[in-house]
Specification:
Elements (H helix, E strand, L loop, with lengths): L10 H20 L6 E4 L11 E3 L9 E2 L3 E2 L4 E10 L11 E10 L2 E8 L8 E2 L3 E2 L5 E8 L12 E8 L4 E3 L7 E2 L10 E9 L11 E9 L5
Parallel strand pairs: 1-7
Antiparallel strand pairs: 2-15, 3-14, 4-14, 5-6, 5-8, 5-9, 6-7, 10-11, 10-13, 11-12, 14-15
């Protein structure tokens, strides 16, 4: 039997090659995007030393300061999520219920830890937001002041962070109240811990949930 060689320059071969490339591209597009590994740090790294606390002056009065949670050593907050109860239209509003920090080591976003301290019970977590580069270094808190004995208090409504690479990231919170001035900056380090002031569940009375928050700064190069 005589074998006939294929002319690699024929229009038919060129068309088949083009279709093969398209098919491969379609298959790759269907592959799921690689997701980072995320682990909840909790309180296991709460003994990590820190250099300063970031605070703002407009936090509300209800509730108590709860426990701190810290990123592991050499990890810093590079992004965040917020837990927000949507507008309740005449029922009890609580607005911002929690802030979850996302910790990474250097610029490696493939292995992450989360920290959040105590959070409220209402609402859903937003999608994460990340600094394009660098770490979180300062924040603003949007707070509705006390509305009086017979009015609905929401206290903390939203949060903004500034990254060391300069972008500002705003949470998907509600619009009651005003933002504070910016907190102090972490300087040569970054945010590495969180502690929340939380009003516990009021069992049918007026809930305000998250009232205030403070963040820990760690030095980038600890001895």
């Amino acid at each position: 039997m005589r074998l006939t060689s294929v002319n690699m320059t024929t229009p038919l071969f060129t068309a088949l090659s083009f279709l093969a490339v398209l098919a491969l591209g379609s298959c790759l597009a269907l592959l799921p995007e690689e997701q980072p590994y995320v682990e909840r740090a909790g309180i296991q790294y709460s003994a990590r030393p820190y250099t300063s606390l970031l605070t703002v002056p407009n936090g509300e009065q209800f509730g108590n300061w709860t426990w701190p949670e810290m990123c592991p050593d050499k990890f810093f907050a590079v992004g965040f999520m917020v837990r927000v109860e949507s507008e309740q239209y005449g029922l009890d509003d609580t607005a911002l219920n929690g802030i979850r920090l996302i910790c990474a080591k250097d610029e490696d976003r493939s292995f992450l830890y989360t920290i959040e301290s105590h959070t409220g019970f209402f609402g859903d977590w937003s999608d994460p937001q990340y600094c394009p580069r660098g770490v979180l270094t300062s924040f603003q808190l949007r707070v509705e002041p006390h509305q009086g004995l017979f009015s609905d208090d929401t206290a903390a409504n939203n949060v903004r962070f500034r990254c060391s690479s300069n972008p500002t990231l705003a949470g998907a919170g509600l619009d009651y109240g005003e933002y504070s001035l910016w907190s102090q900056d972490c300087g040569d380090g970054g945010i590495c811990g969180i502690e929340t002031k939380m009003e516990e569940y009021q069992y049918g009375l007026d809930d305000s949930s998250l009232n205030d928050v403070r963040f820990h700064c760690c030095a980038k190069f600890q001895q």
